[in-house]
Amino acid sequence: MTIEREADLLLVWLRGESNGDTQALVDAEPFWYPPGDDGLVALIDYLRGAGMVHNTELCASGTACSLTAHGVAEAERLIADRDNPRIRLDHAINGLVAAAMETYPTTRLELIDFLCSMRTAVLDEILEVAEVFRAVEYLEANGIVTVDSRSPQTVRAVTLTTLGIECGFKDPISVRNFLNDQRQPRIHNEWNITVNGGAPQMGQDNTQNNTFGYDPQQLTQFAREVLAAAQSADVPEEVRAMVVADVEALQTELAIAAPESGRVRQLAERVLQSARANLPALGWTGVAQLVSANLGIPLF
Q1: Residues with Cβ < 8 Å from 263, sequence gap 6 or more?
Q2: By C-alpha distance, which of 183, 203, 184, 216 is closest to 287?
Q3: Is there a contact between 28 and 9 (Cβ–Cβ < 8 Å)?
Q4: Alpha carbon 231 to chain centroid distance?
Q5: Per DSSP, what are the bridge partners of residue 54?
């Protein structure tokens, strides 16, 4: 554990003990084990250097301190991040990739090992099992892992794909940033085959879109509309995170040179069903209606 992480934990603990009162004097000794260890004083000195605590040095051990206004604000920011479903999801997906890379070159990770590791710690809390499984679903949907031995209720293990290994070699590991980089347009020559009706068109400097009946531009616009609605909707954060994850999985598939039609349909159905259930304020634009008709899924 790094001194930065230990200092964050101490700061949040002090916030709880003082109830955010900058006038409250708190002895930090109960936070630390073993008692009397010089490491606690080093942490307090670190926080004092960052302007987050005052150390009155009234106690012989030097462990009595009070929070500054800056310290209270930083503690509250850390707590807000800890409780944010999207940040918790990012913590889980990045942690899974990092843990799998520790077994390189096999990159196979037993889920029970991950669940029992410190990688599930989010500040002073532990990720719930359901959160870890949502992270696995996100990674699988985006082609970062393959899932081994799936039963009706559990996933035994995951293995990084070639794309996942490439992501795992990044420092620091950020799956979302990596996937966003993959979606950036690249200069290349490709052959275009139009299969959405009309005569096939071929030529260089075009993108191959073999979506077999699905209009990729239509689906891309639909994904943007759902993403915008999710970001502005008055819904619980866990719902917003779920819808956003579904949309990003569809956008990732559409961004590749040759989307696999079955995969496109599966992801588009998931986005449509998720939006229909959670975003009634979307308004169901003409694009949404076209997507619904193409997929054969009624809007209501």
Answers
A1: 253
A2: 216
A3: no
A4: 15
A5: 66
- The number of beta carbons lying within 10 Å of the beta carbon of residue 171 is 6
> Nearest-5° angle of CA 65, CA 66, CA 71?
120
Nearest to 266 by CA among 279, 252, 278, 280: 252
CB atoms within 10 A of CB 4: 10
pTM of the model: 0.60
Cα 74–chain centre separation: 22
Q: What is the pLDDT of residues 82-128, one digit of tens each?
A: 999 989 999 999 999 999 999 999 999 999 999 999 999 999 999 99
Which among 121, 167, 125, 128 is positioned nearest to 144, based on CA atoms? 167
Instruction: Give dist(CA 155, CA 53) in Å, integer.
Output: 44
Closest CA to 142 of 169, 161, 166: 161
The DSSP-derived string for 71-97 is HHHHHHHHHHHHT-HHHHHHHHHHHHH
Kindly state the tokens that stand for 112.
Answer: 């029970």
Angle made by CA atoms 85, 88, 91, in degrees to the nearest 5: 155
Question: How many C-beta atoms surround the C-beta of residue 23 within 10 A?
Answer: 7
**pLDDT of 194-220, one tens digit each?**
444 444 444 444 443 433 356 777 788
H-run or E-run covering 155: strand 155-160
How far, in Å, CA of 215 to CA of 194, rounded? 10
Q: How far apart are CA 38 and CA 12, in angstroms?
A: 20
β-pair type (145-150, 155-160): antiparallel
Cα dihedral 163, 165, 170, 171 sign: positive
**Tokens (6 digits) for 283:** 């308004």
Question: Beta-carbon neighbour count of residue 277 at 10 Å?
Answer: 11
Q: Which helix (H) or strand (E) holds 194?
A: none
Distance (Å, whole) CA 20 – CA 36: 25
Residue 300 CA to residue 295 CA, distance in Å, equals 14
